[in-house]
Structure formats: C-alpha cells, structure tokens
Amino acid sequence: MQRMTRQRLAVLELLAGQSDFRSARQIHDDLAARGVRVGLATVYRALQAMADSGQVDALRTEGEILYRQCRRTVHHHHLVCRNCGLTVEFQGDVVERWAAELAAANGFVQVEHRLEFFGLCPACAAEAAS
C-alpha cells in the first residue's frame, strides 16, 4: 500500500466533494484554486496509484483518463452523461453472467472488465429536444 502523502490526501479530499469524473488537469486546477500547491505530474502519479489500489475509478475516454471517487466499494459499472458528466453507478448481474459465459466459452480465466455506457441524462436530453 502506498503511503498517504499530503498531496494524495488533498486529491482524495477534492474528489470526495465531486460527483462527476474529472481529468488530472481539472483536479490540478481545482487544487490550485483552493491554494494547494502540487505539481501536475504529482497529481497524475497520485491518481494512477489510487486507481491501481481501487481508491478511485478511472474512466478512459477518447484522449484522456478521467477519475472519480466512487460511492460503491464493490465491482460496478457507470452510466455517464456525455454532455454534463452526470454519472450513475450500477451493478449489473446480467453483465456479470454474460462476461463469465463469454470468458468460459473462449477458455479465458481471471477475466476483469469495465463497462461504461455513455448517453444523455434526462435533463440534457430534454434540453437537446427543445
């Protein structure tokens, strides 16, 4: 387990108050706005270490990785609004069964997966329709 440095604690505290996924640069900028001095490279390293240890979830998008401290501690998936970033966490028993069946049918073992759905939340869909 990695040591909890002042910088990592600052990143975790910031993420605890966020509801959407944020890029390392956004997190760095938010920390700077709070008066926390930490280098961008340090933010990247802290986020990667926290993602590796399961403290935060990493969402890979086109061109960057976004991070969020999730509310669920068990394996889960995300439904993400591609307009406002609203994120809904869910457990998907059907997805888990399908992944296990797919792996078994192809002889794979120790399979891990991440699943994110992207769309428009009800508010953004209503705004787009008007």
Determine the strand fraction and express it as a percent band: 15-25%
Share of helical residues: 40-55%
Order of helices and strands: HEHHEEEEHEH
CATH superfamily heading of the largest domain? Winged helix-like DNA-binding domain superfamily/Winged helix DNA-binding domain
For this structure, the CATH topology of the largest domain is: Arc Repressor Mutant, subunit A
By secondary-structure content and strand pairing, the structural class works out as alpha+beta
Number of spatially distinct domains:
2
Order of strands in the sheet with most strands = 1-3-2
What is the 3D shape? Answer: flat
Biggest beta sheet summary: 3 strands, antiparallel
Mean pLDDT score, rounded? Answer: 88
CATH class of the largest domain: Mainly Alpha
The radius of gyration over CA amounts to 17 Å
Total helices: the number is 5
Distance between the termini: 50 Å
Annotated CATH architecture of the largest domain? Orthogonal Bundle
Unreliable stretches covering 5 or more consecutive residues = none
The number of distinct β-strands equals: 6
Helices and strands, with pairings:
Elements: H1 6-16, E1 22-23, H2 24-33, H3 40-53, E2 57-60, E3 65-68, E4 77-81, E5 87-90, H4 93-105, E6 116-119, H5 122-129
Parallel strand pairs: 4-6
Antiparallel strand pairs: 1-3, 2-3, 4-5
Helix pairs in contact: 1-2, 2-3
Describe what this molecule looks like in 3D.
The protein has 130 residues and is an alpha+beta fold. It has two domains: 6-68, Arc Repressor Mutant, subunit A (Orthogonal Bundle), CATH 1.10.10.10; 77-129, Ferric-uptake regulator, C-terminal dimerisarion domain (Dna Ligase, domain 1), CATH 3.30.1490. The model has no long low-confidence stretch (mean pLDDT 88). It has five helices and six strands; from the N terminus they run αβααββββαβα. The termini are far apart. Helices cover 43% and strands 18% of the residues. The protein has helices at residues 6-16, 24-33, 40-53, 93-105, 122-129; strands at residues 22-23, 57-60, 65-68, 77-81, 87-90, 116-119. The strands form two sheets. A three-stranded antiparallel β-sheet has the order 1-3-2. A hairpin with a 4-residue loop joins strand 2 (57-60) and strand 3 (65-68). Helix 1 (6-16) crosses helix 2 and helix 2 (24-33) packs across helix 3.
